[in-house]
Structures are given as C-alpha cells and as structure tokens.
C-alpha cells in the first residue's frame, strides 16, 4: 500500500520518496530567528519496496536567506567533532541569571551550537567548520539521487555518529541502509535496519525496516532468519499490502531452504488473503507480489516434482510417476497464471520455468531405474523406445521455450529480467540437442548407466568437450583401420 510521511526537524522538512528514500522537501525557519512562516513540503505516495516504481524528480525548496555551505565533509579527514552548549549574552529579561564580578545579576540565554569540524594536518589545526545537520542530510540525499552511494553513505554516517539526538537520525539510518543495499553490503544494511527496529519499535519505519531487513538477510543467504522475521511481522497490526508481502517473502525464503510444502502454504495464504480482501484493498492480479505468489506456488510444486525419483519395483514406479505427473500439472497451472499477467519480470521467469518443468520431467523419466539383467543390445533398445515414447514431452518443452523467448523480448524492461532471456535461449539449444543429437543421446545413456545426474553432468562443458574429442578420435581410428594401405599413406602425405 502506498504511504507518505513527513518528519519535521529544526530548519528542515523531510519526506520519503516512492522508492523509500527520505528527502528534504522544504526549509523550515523558526519564527523567532527568521520571521518566516514554516514551509512544509508534500510527499508523493510511497511504495517503499516496489522495485518497478520510477524515481521521482528532486524537489528541494531553498530559502533566499540561506547562506551557501562549502563543505569538504566527504573528502577531509574527520578527526574531531565538538558539540556543546554555548553561553550567549542577551538582553532578554527571562531565562537563567548569573552574577558578574560586581555582583550584578545578568540574564543569560543558552542554546545548543552545531558540532564543529576540525581538520588537522601534521598535528596542527588548519581549518574549522561548523556542521549543519540539515546541510549534511541534504547533501547525502543529493548524492543518493545521483547514485553516488558511497558519498551518500558517508554523509548519513556523520549524522548517525554525531547527531544521534536529532530528528534526522531515523531517516539517516533508513537511507544509509538503502545506500548499503545498492552497494550490496547486505550485512551492514541489516545492522542499520535492526537498529531502527530496536530504537524506534512503535514507528511506522520499524515495519518498513523489518521488510528491508528481510530482503538484506535474504540476499546474504540467511533464510532461516528471514522466515522468523516475516512470522514476527505477521503478529503486528499490518495493512493488507504488508500482510501479503510478508507471506510472499516468507515463501521465498522457504523455497531457498527447499521446504516445499511450507513454501506452498505461505504463497497460498497470500493468494487466498487477497482473494477475500475488500475491493478497495485487493491487489490487482498483475501486481508484483500476487504474480510472485503464483510463481512461488509453481516453484513449490516444481521442487516437489524434482525430488520424486522413479525407482523400482514397477508398482512403486507407476505410482510415483502418476504423482509426479500431478505435481507437474499443478506447477504448470501456477506458472501459467503468472505468465498470463505479462509482468515484466515474473511472467518472463514463469515462461522459462514452464520450459524447465517439461525438461526436468523428461530427464527424470529418462533417468528412471533400469531393471537388472538386460544385456547391451537390450539396453540400447530400451533407451531408443524410451526416447520415442517421451519425445512429445521434449517437443512441448521446445515449444514453450520458443514462445517464451518471443514474449520475453517484447516485455522485458530490466537487466535482471533479461537474465531469464539468456537462460531460456541456453536451454532451448540444449533441448534441441537432447532431442536430435546422437552424441548427446549416448552421453545421457552413459550417465544414467553410471548412476550419475543428468541435470549436473549432461551439459557439463569440460566433460562434454572431452566426450566430443573421444568420439572424434574413435571415429578417426575406425576410419583408419578400415582404409586400405594406399589410402592411409595418401592421407598421411596430405
């Protein structure tokens, strides 16, 4: 669900952008100091985690009275920051008083000064500069928008380290986490999100940070923790969008753990919840997390199908083959639901996975346990008949790969989705070889007879190359033996 939030702080208004980044949107000057009204910017609707949303244009309102700030914060050696109360003489008749040397009480006022940056070179102070947290925050935002994530992170870190009591601390923690995600420093990002959850447990941002923490931990391969975080989120008072997302993210982590049935339950919960939701809350069928839920359901059934191996005796093999066929159909049905939504990422992925579904089904049947006692001739006949019997499955895989390749090239919009095109093209060529290449047929038979894995070994490039060379040498030797001596001499001379 879209959200917006504005947090006010001395001298600045800040808001979140549609990609989740907090940004300065207006200068806020106190009435006593500047005599100007407060200016609060408006924030666009925010979908903090949807990677498809476009970045907004930068809007920063500047006061004409604002002095330019020339900063070397990002590049200078930051050696010391000094912050403290500074006593200032005042004609104000209110406030604290002190006695001077003559015993006369003089009214005073106290305010908190900005921290001071002191640059030191060779042990000598060469420059001092007062830090303005607003300026540091604004420069961090500008760096982030320009995709200078390391510079943005450095500025956000200054606020985190030295302005811990300012109202910029929460958005700086959050934005620094986003910058670390862009730098693929997942563990460090997770630490910042955990700090938000611990220090601001009742804020809306603790929910946002929990989802970002889940993503960072998923990227770091810590899937068990992702499951726990998403389950704990389910105990909170989440809106419909967040609840759906929590189910889907939990399902994704369970897929990585190969907990197929639990993953199926998580994805099905997301779909069922959305189906029952009121009309004004229900997510569209082609929305990111609903399409992903259909894809996840397909992957759950696909994983269960792959785990089921066909072994003797015949009665068990027949039963397992029927179960495998049912799982194949369930996986295909859900992949097709995702495919039909024409989502620029998940539909392309689903098309590829349907092709893989048929390919895996073919390889599983081809790798079924062979009865003992067959001689070499009988084994050859067995494989020939088996290939002919299940050829229709391979032809179906080829058809799906070819159609998905055309669809993908029409709707793909990102480099991540383009990877599915490359995978589809690769497996399309492999399936053509498996269907019609005699050398691939022989290698598949050898792997099955040796008890190997067709998935891991059949298209292993070094092994396949060695087999190709071996076959070529064998053909050359056979040709040489069958040739008459004059022909052999002629070939050697040439």
Structure description:
This protein has 494 residues and is mostly helical. It has a domain at 293-436. The chain is built from 19 helices and nine strands. The chain has helices at 31-34, 133-145, 149-162, 169-182, 186-199, 204-219, 223-233, 240-256, 260-276, 288-307, 314-339, 346-366, 376-389, 391-411, 415-436, 438-449, 454-457, 461-482, 485-493; strands at residues 6-9, 11-16, 22-28, 80-82, 85-89, 97-99, 105-112, 116-121, 124-130. The strands form three sheets. Strands 1-2-3 form a three-stranded antiparallel sheet. It has a three-stranded antiparallel sheet with strand order 4-8-9, with no helix packed on it. Strands 5-7-6 form a three-stranded antiparallel sheet, with no helix packed on it. A hairpin with a 1-residue loop joins strand 1 and strand 2 (11-16). Helix 7 runs antiparallel to helix 8 (240-256) and helix 10 (288-307) packs parallel to helix 12. The protein is elongated and about 90 Å long. 33% of the residues are buried.
